[in-house]
């Protein structure tokens, strides 16, 4: 896979986010998926598609960016990397693919739904989340 583009251009809709596994930690990956799949207190869920090709393990964010197709159908790429799973809050790396392609922000897994939901309906822009991070650069919700 590292010599190819990610399959982000063939999706039937643009109302989803791609969650890409680059960590080798199986237990942490499962925990992240459970957290993303747990509804918020208001019942919101992130619409995501998971990618976990073994050839993607250990890629840096720069290497992941090089794999993004020219016209991705999704607006958001979420990377579950070693930095994310080392954090107790699971601070996932979100990469903007539409508004400011390549701009990043970290978001705790439990708040991914907020970014994905608002981007998919055009209610907010990626910058709204990137500009609302805490002192450590992580978005934890509004």
From TrEMBL:
Pfam family, one: DUF6924
Residue ranges annotated for the DUF6924 domain, each copy included: 18-142
Top-level taxon in the UniProt lineage: Bacteria
InterPro entries: DUF6924
Protein name: DUF6924 domain-containing protein
């Amino acid at each position: 896979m590292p010599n190819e583009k990610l399959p982000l251009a063939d999706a039937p809709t643009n109302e989803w986010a791609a969650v890409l596994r680059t960590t080798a930690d199986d237990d942490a990956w499962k925990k992240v998926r459970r957290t993303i799949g747990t509804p918020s207190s208001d019942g919101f869920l992130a619409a995501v598609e998971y990618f976990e090709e073994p050839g993607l393990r250990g890629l840096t964010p720069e290497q992941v960016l090089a794999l993004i197709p020219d016209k991705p159908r999704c607006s958001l790429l979420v990377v579950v990397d070693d930095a994310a799973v080392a954090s107790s809050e699971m601070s996932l790396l979100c990469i903007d693919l539409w508004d400011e392609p390549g701009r990043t922000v970290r978001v705790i897994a439990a708040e991914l739904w907020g970014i994905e939901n608002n981007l998919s309906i055009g209610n907010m822009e990626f910058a709204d989340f990137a500009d609302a991070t805490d002192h450590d650069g992580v978005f934890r919700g509004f």
